Amino acid sequence: MSVYPNPFRQALDRAAALVRSLRPNWRDAETFYAHRSEALACLRAAATADRCDRCEAHALRERVRRLEVLLRHAGAEVARHRRLLASAVRPRRRRPAAPDPRQAALPLA
Fold first, then answer.
1. Is the same domain home to 59 and 69?
2. Does a structural domain hold residue 40?
3. What is the reported pLDDT for 60?
4. What is the pTM of this model?
5. Looking at the 3D structure of the chain, how many domains does it have?
6. How much is the pLDDT for 53?
7. Given pLDDT bands bounded at 50, 70 and 90, which one contains residue 102?
8. pLDDT tens digit sequence for 40-96
């Protein structure tokens, strides 16, 4: 058990205890719904509570989010460079001039 209180774990433990104790009460239905609402409130509190400071999951999620943004940007840059290369004018190779059939050939012998 940690010396420092963890609101996330406390809220989850409280919600788990409430869910374990939930039993339908046919004589007093309001208590069942009150306990159920309290368990949902504890789960919502756990969802919004700060995670453990020593837990690396939050920091890793943030790093993954930043890496996704960087990869998306790099992919856009690669696509832009490919379009730029595709649009560049390539010099055409000139075919050797074929003899024009309309001109008479000169006899050079």
1. yes
2. yes
3. 80
4. 0.41
5. 2
6. 57
7. confident
8. 888 887 777 666 556 677 778 888 889 999 999 998 999 898 888 888 767 677 777
Regarding whether 11 and 35 lie in a shared domain, the answer is: yes
User: How far apart, in whole angstroms, are the C-alpha atoms of residue 44 and residue 46?
Assistant: 5
Q: Does residue 27 sit in the same domain as residue 62?
A: no
* Domain co-membership, 13 together with 38: yes
Residues 16 and 30 in one domain: yes
**Whole domain around residue 79: which residue ranges?**
54-83
Which residues lie below 8 Å from residue 77, measured CB to CB, with a gap of 6+? none
Distance CA 30, CA 60 (A): 43
109 in a structural domain: no
- Convert 41-65 to b/e letters by CB count within 10 Å (16 or more is b): ebbebbeeeebeeeeeeeeeeeeee
